[in-house]
Amino acid sequence: MTPSTAQRLFTELTNAELAYRLRGVPIAEFCRRQANRHLGETRRELLRVAALGDDAAVFMDFFLKEFEG
Fold this sequence. Notes:
By secondary structure, the chain is an all-alpha fold.
């Protein structure tokens, strides 16, 4: 994964978590919608997260724990 893709993916996934916590939007739904705004690797990764469905929330917990220091 390129650094620019990782940055865009991090931004979208943190936005997905915020939308889930503040408005109750499912993470998979948010990622599916946001994937249409990107191309290439970022889109592919967002669609991969969206394909998890209800398990996307579990993925997000794992993803965000990686950034805790």
